[in-house]
Design goal:
The structure is a single chain. By secondary structure, the chain is of the alpha+beta class. It folds into two domains: about 25-100, membrane protein fhac (Ubiquitin-like (UB roll), Roll), CATH 3.10.20; about 105-225, Rossmann fold, CATH 3.40.50. The strands form three sheets. A five-stranded mixed β-sheet has the order 6-7-8-9-10, with helices on one face. The model is unreliable at about 10-25 (pLDDT under 50). The N and C termini lie far apart (about 105 Å). A hairpin with a 2-residue loop joins β6 and β7 (about 170-175). Helices cover about 35% and strands about 25% of the residues.
C-alpha cells in the first residue's frame, strides 16, 4: 500500500473543509456579528401596518440573517388579512418580507365607521385611512355583492373605479355608476362584463342617454331609459 502523497492529503483536507461549510455553515455564520439583522424591508404592504408586521416577526435582539426564517414567515402569515408571506435574506443584514394582502372591494359601515370588505364579503382588519381606499360603499358586508365587485375589479379596473355603490336585489347585484345602473348576475362572466361595456360605448357614440344596462340575460344586454340622440 503506497503512502499518501502531499497533493492527495491536501485534497482530502479541502474536501473536509468544504463539507464542514456545507453542513455546518449556517450554524457557524449565526455566530458572526457581521450578519446580525439590522433592517427589515417590506414588499407588497399597502394596507397592513408595517410596524405590526415587524413586531409580529419577533426578531430577537441578537437575531442573525442565517437563523431559521420559517418561523418569521409563519408569524407574518398569522396576521389577519395576510394571504401569503415569504422571508428572504439580503446580505449582509437585511430580511426581505414579501406579502400578499387580501384585496378589498368595498367599504361598509361598522361601529359608526367605514371599514374595508374583502372579496369573501367579510370585514378586513385594515384601516381605510392608512390604505387610502377609494372603494364602492355597500350597506353591509354581503358575499354575493363582494364577489361581483371582485370580478369587476379583476376584469375591468376602469369600470370598477367608477362604481359608487352596489346592492343585492332579488338574488342579483345592482351596481350604481353615479346615476346609471348595471344589473348583473352573481356568477357574472368576463364576457358579460365586456358586452355591457360595449353596449355603453355604442350608446355613447350614438349620443343616446340610458339609465340602466341589464346583463342578466344570455346573449343580450337590455338597455332601459333610452332617449333620443343628444
Amino acid at each position: 500500500m503506497k503512502p499518501w502523497t502531499r497533493p492527495a492529503l491536501m485534497g482530502l483536507a479541502l474536501l473536509a473543509a468544504g463539507s464542514a461549510v456545507w453542513f455546518g455553515g449556517p450554524v457557524l455564520l449565526r455566530q458572526v456579528g457581521f450578519f446580525k439583522v439590522r433592517r427589515v424591508e417590506l414588499v407588497g404592504v399597502t394596507a397592513a401596518t408595517p410596524a405590526e408586521i415587524v413586531a409580529a416577526m419577533r426578531i430577537p435582539p441578537r437575531g442573525n440573517l442565517f437563523d431559521d426564517l420559517d418561523p418569521y414567515a409563519a408569524r407574518v402569515l398569522a396576521i389577519p388579512g395576510i394571504r401569503t408571506a415569504e422571508v428572504h435574506r439580503r446580505l449582509p443584514g437585511t430580511l426581505v418580507v414579501t406579502v400578499t394582502e387580501a384585496r378589498a372591494v368595498a367599504l361598509a359601515p361598522r361601529n359608526g365607521r367605514l371599514r374595508m370588505v374583502g372579496r369573501n364579503g367579510k370585514f378586513l382588519p385594515f384601516d381605510p385611512a392608512v390604505a387610502a381606499a377609494d372603494l364602492p360603499v355597500i350597506d353591509e358586508p354581503d358575499a354575493t355583492v363582494a364577489r361581483v365587485l371582485g370580478r369587476l375589479q379583476e376584469i375591468d379596473p376602469e369600470l370598477f373605479s367608477r362604481v359608487v355603490t352596489a346592492t343585492a336585489e332579488r338574488g342579483d347585484v345592482v351596481v350604481d355608476l353615479g346615476g346609471r345602473r348595471l344589473w348583473l348576475r352573481p356568477d357574472v362572466t368576463a364576457e358579460v362584463i365586456r358586452a355591457v361595456m360595449a353596449a355603453e360605448q355604442v350608446l355613447g357614440r350614438q349620443g343616446r342617454a340610458w339609465s340602466e344596462l341589464d346583463g342578466r340575460f344570455a346573449g343580450q344586454v337590455v338597455v332601459r331609459g333610452r332617449g333620443r340622440p343628444g
